Amino acid sequence: MKKVVVLSGAGISAESGLRTFRDSNGLWENYKVEDVATPEAWVRNPDLVLEFYNQRRKQALDAQPNAGHRALKQLEPYFDVTIVTQNVDNLHEKAGSAKVIHLHGELFKSRSTRDPRLVYDIAGWELKKGDHCEKGSQLRPHIVWFGEAVPMMDSAVEIVQQADILIIVGTSMVVYPAAGLIDFARPGIPIYVVDPNVPDIRPRKNLTFIPEPATTGLSRLAEQLIAANATDGV
Q: Where, by residue number, does substrate bind (predicted)?
């Protein structure tokens, strides 16, 4: 099976009703990013940070995958699909995608402040002060905050290097290091960019822009790839 790698960003989640800080002039649900999404914010006001992510988690519980998420799932019988997402929600998993790498962490998980290797699922939507890991330290959101390293970056690079087809959807391609993943794609493989606002990507002969939302653009692209795969297999 050909290997399809998908780089997904906030645009695909926005179509399911989940907003990001980029939607409102640097504010995320009326909060400044530096007040809720940095290590300094956690030290300064952990109660605010916990409450902020509790509310994001509560909102995400009700969010459902859209046609874009489902289109990626529909590729799996025909391709080896891996999704590398900048999103912290679980909409790709809700849609049934089997292989998802979360570059920026996962909203429905917590981790130890003493040992970052200790990661736990969050039951429901609330993470509270006094919720401790097995070593006795406070649990924090399992999110890669601004200013922190991206632990899954090496795995993402390796996956992109193996791609036969690369799909980029719902990302402005300006947030690094994630935006640099395109540069690890092998020369000559087809790259499809699905976004109503065409991101600023260096021109390539094999680059195809689909200036549509994920819900329509991915659905159409999935149909094309499946049809082409069937023809190749004849």
A: 53, 56
